[in-house]
Design goal:
By secondary structure, the protein is of the alpha/beta class. It contains 10 helices and 10 strands.
Length: 314
């Protein structure tokens, strides 16, 4: 019996060590990319000397071409689109239409093969790179939570944190009550893989926390790239409407597959065939009777059937 227990203990230790080694190797792969990026000046985006203007900002994509490195086909081809200062717009379209690619070009994660991105009529590359980072409040589909406290995750720093602003940001993304119920509140540590005393948030909670970061940062351009995919349609619509109500003086770009969540936008751009295929308000696109109209009616029928099924099971 003692031999069996010893063998079981050895196997448990081997599995634990193996899991830890895999975790370290996985994290080190990101470090290798980081060092390659920092040591290769050609990979760094250009930085001009202009400072960002005050107030809401207009954004224009002009004759834009883009394809991913190593790919022959363009994701975006001769795309032209202008977002007015203070305007709230939605980018919609099928998977692979180039919505997320367009946003990654805007925030500088990629560079276009040709064409221009203009901020208030000035080339994006002409602005100082640090200034560019200040203006965007991007929230992407994949969320990275840091193994620090909740308040530090929201504020993005450990110094001079505005606690009232943290609570306000959590309330606007629907996470305040959840944090208030935690024994340590804003001082709750995240990532149990690092600290056994920490907690792990669910997928939906993680996405809400990422949105709280954007609210706390309070830059002039808010970007939501389907960060609410783990939430149901009603929860997503509520968050979008809350953000819309506090973004009156901001330029906002929302990406969502659920068209019902973007009806309130000033204009909606439908991307297809590597460019803008349709644009206008929700009412204008519905009256047009094109692809947007088709997708909206299809989704509406699906959500209606889903709600009827819920009511029947209640």
């Amino acid at each position: 019996m003692s031999i069996g227990l010893s063998y079981q203990l050895i196997m448990t230790i081997e599995l634990a060590v193996g899991d830890f080694a895999f975790y370290i190797a996985y994290q080190m792969s990101f470090m290798a990319d980081y060092y390659e990026f920092m040591e290769n000046p050609e990979l760094l985006p250009p930085s001009g000397d202009r400072l960002m203007p005050e107030g809401p900002l207009s954004i224009e994509f002009k004759n834009l071409y883009f394809r991913y490195p190593g790919c022959e086909n363009y994701v975006l081809e001769n795309l032209n689109m202008k977002i007015e200062a203070g305007e709230t717009v939605a980018l919609v379209g099928d998977n692979g239409a180039g919505k997320s690619s367009l946003i990654k070009l805007l925030v500088g994660l990629y560079r276009p093969n040709s064409g221009e991105i203009l901020i208030n009529g000035i080339k994006l590359d002409d602005f100082n790179i640090r200034e560019r980072k200040k203006i965007f409040n991007p929230v992407f589909q994949s969320v990275l939570l840091w193994p620090v406290t909740l308040k530090e995750n929201v504020a993005g720093t450990e110094q001079n944190i505005d606690i009232a602003r943290v609570w306000d940001s959590l309330e606007k993304c629907g996470l305040k009550e959840r944090v208030e119920a935690m024994p340590h509140g804003l001082d709750t540590l995240l990532d149990r893989a690092i600290d056994p005393e920490a907690i792990d948030l669910s997928g939906g909670e993680s996405q809400k926390l990422a949105i709280a970061r954007a609210v706390y940062k309070d830059g002039p351009v808010t970007i939501l790239d389907e960060p609410t995919a783990a939430l149901d349609a009603l929860a997503e619509a509520e968050i979008y409407e809350n953000l819309h109500s506090i973004s009156v003086a901001k330029t906002s770009i929302y990406i969502s597959h659920r068209l019902s969540s973007t009806k309130f936008c000033d204009r909606i751009f439908l991307l297809a065939d590597r460019a803008v295929a349709e644009f206008g308000s929700h009412a204008e696109l519905m009256a047009l009777g094109g692809r947007y109209h088709e997708i909206f009616l299809t989704q509406g029928k699906y959500y209606q059937e889903e709600q009827e099924a819920r009511n029947a099971n209640a």
